[in-house]
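Minutes, project check-in
Item: structure for the 388-residue chain
Input as provided by the requester:
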Amino acid sequence: MAKKRLDILFLAVILLLLLAGLARTLLFPKEINTYENRYADQAPALSVSAFLDGSYQTELDAALGDQVPFAQHCKKLYNLGTSALLNAMVQPIAQSHPDRYINVFNLRLFHGTHLTYYTSTLSELAPELDARAEHYNQVFADCPDTEFYVYYIEKDTDIDFETGEKVGTCDYLTSRLNLPEDRIGCYRIDNFDQFSQRFYRTDHHWNAQGSYEGYLQVLDLLGVEEAPLTHGEAVTVSPHFSGSKAASAPILSEPFVAYPVAFPQMDITINGAAAEDYGAQDAWLSGQGAGDISYGAFYGGDMGEIIFRSGTQGRGNLLVIGESFDNAILKLLASHFDSLYSIDLRYYEIYMGTQFSLSDYLERHQIERVLLIGNVDYFVSQDFLLED
């Protein structure tokens, strides 16, 4: 009798969680999946055609996966719980072949430590790169009074670590741009040692060392003469971090290490509303961070528009049009300008309720310099096309 009551209670709890997840999905959906640093899936609009072709059910299932209470915690526990078992299976092979890729689910493990994406090929990328270069050159020509800068970030898709052969995407793209050489920069990764020091093992972003080096390079690219902000000794914010790569292949976790920086006072606006801060670097470094640690939770997530105002005059305004890689350096860069405007074209219309117009934005905010920054995905994806 007691067992039957426990079974009924267990089923009742499960049913309540599912109902709560459905109610949250339909009535109070969250916008951001902080664990995976992406826009959370939302409940789709119901239509007869979508129901019949199955797309409604598929999209609703994805939304429930993001919106059900404790879903992100369950993903984290699953990643941590399975990593030990999978490591025990894979590490003997990896240690026997440290300079070879080992296939793990739909990713590759290199050196037994780093989950790596498959290397791109220039023949596959060339058509998209040609089209993007042509598109940018037209944008440059349409805005003759604006200084444009392009900064390409190499990562694991840009080099084969086994052979050391590089794809050459950065050079291919930038050689086709109608820009002076001193307005083009590339964050180079020439071997696995460089990559392992500058990128997370389980996440696709650059780590604290990599992003700080990128910040210094961008300052030089932009011709900023004032001294860069310095950082303190590295701090382990969390001993267990499983990033975006581990979300689909839960094989590794790693410490999340960050640099403390004394940022100057800034007024920050996010998606049109005043904000206390972008990201939560101070909170995490002081042990007060909330929720799961992630690249986005620490540095700040992908937003349609972020505006940093330093309160100074005479240093000019900068527009940064990028993707999640620039999240880690936005506050650093903002300390060198009167105002820094950050736009993520994937989310601008979603959050701001209108399409982004470059010419209108430049005029409204009196912007004379524009930085286009990202990795290969940024320069080939249609989501990042600039509309005049």
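Outcome recorded: The mean pLDDT is 86.
No further action items on this chain.
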